[in-house]
Write a structure and sequence with these properties.
Elements: E1 6-8, H1 17-26, E2 31-38, H2 39-44, E3 59-64, H3 68-81, E4 85-90, H4 95-99, H5 110-121, E5 128-133, H6 142-153, E6 159-163, H7 174-177, H8 185-194, E7 199-203, H9 209-216, E8 221-224, H10 226-230, H11 238-243, H12 252-268, H13 274-277, H14 290-300, H15 308-326
Parallel strand pairs: 1-2, 1-8, 2-3, 3-4, 4-5, 5-6, 6-7, 7-8
Helix pairs in contact: 3-5, 5-6, 14-15
Length: about 325
């Protein structure tokens, strides 16, 4: 599979299989990522941490871990389950992740990361990629970044997504690490110039497709995180604007209609409505009446017997509010 032009970042508690199904309705081309899944969860957990909907392809599994043997075992399982890519997390700065010796702290151990990538590549026939930062703590020089890339690329990784901020491993929360360290897009651009044969994508602070297009003049791919979740209708124009697909743009109402059968199937298995609608809250962001949409879902979707009528009522309330504001 070629480097992805546009992808949605792996986001813990956000990019679960319900969100990914929802996102896929709006874009058939965007590469979707799972939430980060640890090797321990896959190998020793009680749940099926590799479950997904077949409609989600192209789909990448993001793994958290630093044991080459365990990572290879998980990559092989994911390959057998039909995933399109394996991605190693070398960017998450949380204390819990550091205690497990994976995430951003692995930037300080490029040889180990290279060994992990090599172990996975030996057992799968799909891309093995790395998502990382531009540096950690005081180790934030360009030389530090290039040594990391060189070392990992030497073991066969040719696809990196760079979150254009460094990570502070001590003193900042994961949320603060997504906001406080300064963005340095130029450093990622320089990386592509210095490693022209590698696929280099960028992540961090990207909010519009116009911004994505600018980055794509310099780089191979763009990964969007929070904006793709909080303002998901952004995805409706990804295929036409970034991939040149000629087709009518799906409306928000059409997105909802396509979600209803999926919601009903989920409810029949004993699932709760809010497991899915929590991902749909931002669908009408910025439009008149959107507050009513959010409020009705938030106040009613969690109730024990809530069904698709809650979604339909939320749409009606939103349109009624919007019409009254125009009068």
């Amino acid at each position: 599979m070629a480097a992805s032009t546009f992808s949605i970042a792996p986001m813990l508690d956000w990019t679960d299989k319900h969100y990914r199904y929802f996102a896929r309705i709006m874009s058939t081309k965007a590469l979707l990522y799972t939430e980060m899944v640890t090797t321990g969860a896959i190998l020793h957990g009680r749940g099926d941490y590799l479950a997904y909907n077949t409609e989600e392809h192209p789909l990448a599994l993001q793994l958290g871990g630093s044991n080459p043997v365990d990572l290879a075992a998980c990559a092989k399982l994911a390959f057998e389950r039909g995933y399109d890519e394996i991605n190693l997390n070398v960017g998450c700065p949380s204390d819990r992740v550091q205690n497990g010796r994976f995430g951003a702290c692995l930037m300080a151990e490029p040889e180990l990361v290279a060994e992990c990538v090599d172990a996975m590549k030996q057992v799968v026939d799909i891309p093995v990629t790395v998502k990382t930062r531009i540096g950690i703590d005081e180790q934030d020089s360009y030389e530090f970044l290039t040594k990391f890339i060189e070392t990992v690329a030497a073991k066969g990784c040719d696809d990196f997504t760079i979150h254009a901020r460094k990570a502070w491993l001590q003193g900042l929360s994961p949320k603060e690490n997504r906001e406080i360290p300064l963005l340095d897009y130029d450093r990622v651009y320089q990386l592509k110039r210095d490693f022209p044969k590698l696929n280099i994508g960028i992540n961090g602070g990207i909010k519009t497709l116009a911004e994505a297009k600018l980055h794509l003049t310099q780089l191979d791919g763009v990964m969007v995180g929070r904006e793709a979740y909080q303002n998901p209708y952004l995805l409706a124009e990804v295929d036409t604007q970034l991939y040149g697909v000629k087709r009518d743009i799906i409306s928000r109402e059409q997105v909802i209609e396509k979600m209803l059968p999926y919601i009903e199937a989920h409810l029949k298995t004993g699932g709760r409505l809010n497991h899915i609608t929590r991902h749909m809250i931002g669908l009408f962001q910025g439009l008149a009446g959107s507050r009513q949409w959010r409020r009705h879902l938030s106040e009613n979707a969690h109730k024990p017997n809530a069904g698709i009528e809650v979604v339909r009522e939320a749409v009606i309330k939103m349109h009624t509010t919007a019409e009254s504001m125009q009068d």
